Amino acid sequence: MDNEMGRLISSLRKEKNMTQQELADKLNITDKAVSKWERGLSYPDISLIPKLADILDIDPNKLLGSSNNEISKTDKSNIKDTIMLVFKCVGFALAVAVLVLNIIGKTNVNDSITLLSLSLVCIGITLLNKEQ
Length: 132
Description:
single chain
């Protein structure tokens, strides 16, 4: 058996200065059961997970090892900043492309207007995002 959950339970219990017996009493189980969890010999009954997570102040999904669905606020902010940077770069690149294509005579008015419109949309998205 994987002992990751057991190590996590043990660590969180100790952070709370709680004995195995105290944790067991709060869950209405034996301290032997808690000991087995922490040694990786068994897992908590699924019905105990919400209460156990509450006692240990941890998200039940994290207790179960499912942290993939959690994205920290910092990660979300970094993702948002990256997306906004991409919009800025695309908007700038389109504007430069229109300029260069017009200078070398390889585009017509309709194509230039379309590319400039897309450029403005990209830059507009970044400006709207700053207001929020």
